[in-house]
Design goal:
4 copies of one chain form a homotetramer. Chain A is α+β, with helices and mostly antiparallel strands. The first copy, chain A, contains 8 helices and 18 strands. In chain A, about 25% of the residues lie in helices and about 20% in strands. In chain A, helix 3 crosses helix 8 (about 335-360). In chain A, about 65% of the residues are buried. Chains in contact: A-B, A-C, A-D, B-C, B-D, C-D. Chains C and D meet through strand 1, helix 2, helix 6, strand 11 and helix 7 of C and strand 1, helix 2, helix 6, strand 11 and helix 7 of D.
């Protein structure tokens, strides 16, 4: 019951602590016969990787996937896909200062409360390094979804005070992938991106950090995915996103705005377009009653600012139970949003792949 | 894989369509020896029930729980608790008009796409009547949590444009339960409640509907609940809430506001208070790295306006594939928020009870 | 984790104690659109029912299924199928004598050790009355399997010293169903059946009981069902059978006899017959490496003698911890085998239906 | 749903094909704070390893475990334990002959039917090499069980016609471990062991193979483990054993013999011994109604003869669909029993550890 497994049919189980030997996982339930583009998987991983550019943490981790099983001659065998990434750039010394101090809004304290063990170097299992496994599995899921005509996109829509107007009618725009990758913060609007970059650089020099919002879009999902009660499609998407480090909120379709809307403005009228039934607006976010309706699915994910700041903070030393003042010196991001974009995409892919497979069994 | 089960150890499986024979469920994993206050369970169910007052739907459903197993002499046996509520007030005629029209933002269309069957009367399995089972199981979970000193509260903080300032420092207020129950909309501030009531009455007369927000609070949770990776405590709370009918968003602690905050203002400094370690602010919402830290847990749940409005709407007739105009005549709420309060509470209880039990096994 | 759920996709969860209100369950994952022959389900239940004839316990329990959800106009909706059977013929007085005496080889003692509660009347959750739910769900599974051309048969092959030669080449015979039902002990060979009947009658008059063996056969299973590692098809069949009350052993194909065989005699040579690949012998029992090979699947299930005998026995009184002598007076079977035949069939159907659905997802 | 996960709380997920990169797994749910004796784990693995002595296959695979996560300073962290063993001694050439011939009673044919892919070299995922992961996880489970005073033993009781009288009263003997390890076939009776060794050597020279039986014993299990319905303790033990390669049958306690016994001889009378309640006989095999009763648990596991024989066999060539005659040349065991002993022990440990943890949650 340790909570390291995600999914019911297309299923990922992960292991690994940052600063341990390796990070990795097992993917169960991927159908046999899928061609795996290993370069695509590695490319997704590179998007998540530290040290990509001057805006993210300079820890330069190679993060090369090693494939252990389940793939042969470039195709899935139908058996579990085992994979790992060895941890190479471990510098526990960087964290020496913190050893017994509970870092504010980090998981040191709760981790110690839960397991009665303190894993001194970095965040152990709670480290965002664990998301490597998600990106690998999510990339495989995206290759599978491509076979079924489904595509996923994620991009940055808010960093601190700077936001992209993310909700044109009837739903957020699907951008050319290059416009996202050209931006150091993965915001497809160049001028907003520029403001965000400046803001992050500014915070870096001050030793402070910022939160932000990532928007996800899914195109090509057929009507019918999702289960009517607990495993509503958006409930599983929400859990997927909330399980990503630093996430504080999830909304889909009209989201929190729905709270102040009238039924008469919120309802999406059914219309016929190109000979098939669709809706003229998309407040539903492509999901009605927990089941996809064939329109684009979209959602927002809110991230808190990184907890590790390079400003003096007050806390408690767990050994002495005394109040102490300290300042972090480790290498950290001033904003995780750019590196979190591929993680959001990966988690969305895991959910949709799982539900696509589940949905194959609902009719005789 | 039909998604009608929630939880891993304290586990609820539900069955039942509105307008079928009965609604009910099986609770597995409730420890033996728990005294069940059957009146409390029924009282929670009555809070969810239609026909409570003039603001909610006049369908008067008795909703009396029948206990089938697992309880003897007022105590749990440790065996599965089977229960049901027979459907008594079925008036399919009320829905006659809609039979082949896809009601906008309802699940008729997607349900038919998924199962290739149209359940003509009401929403079938997608009906909010299914939440009866959640409230019953959630009430049992609340009785269990009480044994461990944990209490849950939920109340209305937004209906349309009218909101309660839900975030005083360091977290939303814990109100006297009576102040919530005295309000017809379950908003503990009498003057805000009055505005909300007026607003709903106004919409009723117009045939329109509104959305809203419910805030949940959990007190007495020990540090250590939640798992570090996929089953983070807030991820399971998020999924629980998003699985409730009409929910569009979930945030905990600082929530979406975190996106625009600085790390230096968001971090919760550890302090010592009454000889134990706590934090002076609570942007974390009682959860760090997915694990409870001993502070109060709080979260917001956004609901969309009810889809059934009594105004003329345009849609498609599924038999003819023609555009039609129609007007609903059934009995429906103008706002589900007041009746959803006990459901939010119930789902929170299911999550916390499950994680409390899971956490008993993490140390030797 | 209470262990009341069986299956992964076609999934049964049960509730109910004998002498409680009702016995029942929820079937999840049955595809939508299956025509349900309610009479067949009831007929299967009648085969399990006490009081069928003079050889079985005279408790006359009607065991009428009440359908609560998931079926409409004779077809499955794709939603959970809830059902129950009310307990009507409860006579706790019959058991009065035993109230605090641990009945030898019954579960009174272990149940009390586990839950610290003694359910005084009958065996509570451990009673074979729980198998009602299995027979109901198994009947639905059999209707589903019929759609796919798969049929299951079970019959008695051993009662005490009297046995049917169950292993002709290449596998046990598939008998005309009537030849099984004509036998009071469900043994298709009339002369062996007669010996068995005499033996049971003889034991009834002496107050003693006997064990036996049931053989199961499954025809029409396509090659490919079962998973290569833990969920081998025969491993799931074995668990299914061993979960039936009073079962002590399970073997498939050559079974225990394989221990003394040579590889050169045990291997099943592949041959071509009617233009498709099959084997000339069937020591594999239709399963190789945990995966069905298209031949008939067959297995044996060993049952212990009923624990409730009407002869004086020695035991411990749980209240006084003293040795006591006692004699049972309740109504009980001298041999459960005849009534267990439909249960074996039901459990086999649950396993095959689940694996058939799982196997739909293994290839792109 | 690929069936590569075993257990519910103490949970093992495995990956790896023989002749692929590596074999390994993830153990979830092992409590934090357990001291791991890495030498014990390796020693268990060495007992399973090919090339131990002249009776087993001469493939000399080092099988060194690499630990990837979850253990630090010799103690478990509470996080998933990742581990692997690289495949070093891959000689696909040995199998060249067979490439398109379906080896009789092997899984080539069914594997190809299921996945529509033929993994040409060796058995892929169906190879017994997968059991490395079970032995590693089972060794960790045994270390955990030792903390709770529970010990497991397994030994050979039958090879071909040579058997050890395995059922003295009231249950099979617990032997000094050395007496098992001194025997090349892991049969604790030196004279029977000698006969078995001779028999295997004889078969080796003839190119034939034999089956056998392994008996398992578990001591120190407290009363109360196991769940009353589907997850009966012996049902989970049975599934565990039947999931091991080449197993054809499982029985516990009186087993198949129970079929011919009378209730009056089979019932285990409760008695008081050393001030606690036990039974004077143990036909129950330490389990009543699926729940441990505090007595020793014992069971038998039947294995078929190895399918790979070095005698001419007839089969079908999958490419041409023609009957062919062929003779195996690869390196294989004439009898798997000696190497399967630690696997039986490992699987028993996984079941008991899981149920011990589950049982911690059944009472308030």
């Amino acid at each position: 019951m340790a909570g390291s497994t995600f999914g019911t049919i297309f299923k990922l189980t992960t292991f690994g602590e940052s600063h341990g030997q390796a990070i990795g996982g097992i993917i169960e339930g991927c159908p046999a016969g899928l061609t795996i583009d290993l370069d695509f998987v590695q490319a997704e991983l590179n998007r998540r990787r530290p040290g990509q550019n001057h805006l993210v943490t300079p820890r330069n981790e190679a993060d090369q996937v090693q494939w252990l099983s389940g793939i042969k001659n470039g195709k899935t065998l139908g058996t579990p896909i085992g994979f790992l990434v060895f941890n190479t750039d471990q510098k526990p010394a960087d964290y020496a200062l913190n050893r017994s101090i509970y870092r504010p809004s980090h998981s040191d304290f709760v981790y110690e409360q839960k397991y009665q063990i303190r894993d001194e170097n970095g965040g152990g299992r709670s480290s965002a390094r664990e998301t490597i496994s998600r990106v690998v599995a999510g990339a495989i899921a995206q290759l599978l979804l491509k076979e079924w005509g489904i595509q996923i996109q994620a991009y940055t829509t808010q960093i601190g005070p700077y936001g992209l107007n993310a909700a044109p009618t009837p739903e957020p725009l699907w951008y050319p992938p290059a416009s996202i990758e050209q931006s150091l913060v993965r915001c497809p609007d160049a001028s907003v991106s520029h403001q965000m970059e400046q803001y992050i650089q500014d915070l870096q020099s001050k030793g402070d950090t910022t939160g932000g919002i990532i928007t996800g879009l899914i195109q090509g999902v057929p009507a019918g995915l999702g289960e009517p009660v607990f495993d509503k499609l958006h409930a599983d998407l929400g859990k997927a996103m909330l399980s990503i480090n630093a996430v504080k909120g999830f909304e889909y379709g009209s989201g929190f705005k729905a709270a102040t809307m009238l039924g008469s403005e919120h309802n999406d009228p059914f219309v016929i377009s190109n000979n098939h039934i669709t809706t003229s607006t998309n407040h539903s976010g492509g999901i009605q009653g927990g089941i996809s309706n064939g329109s684009a699915i979209y959602f927002n994910v809110a991230f808190k600012p990184v907890s590790t700041i390079k400003l003096p903070q007050q806390s408690i030393d767990g050994l002495t139970n005394q109040v102490v003042e300290f300042t972090n010196t480790g290498r950290h991001d001033a904003c995780v949003i750019p590196r979190a974009v591929p993680i959001v995409q990966a988690m969305a892919a895991l959910v949709i792949a799982d539900h696509y497979l589940r949905n194959k069994l609902v009719r005789l």
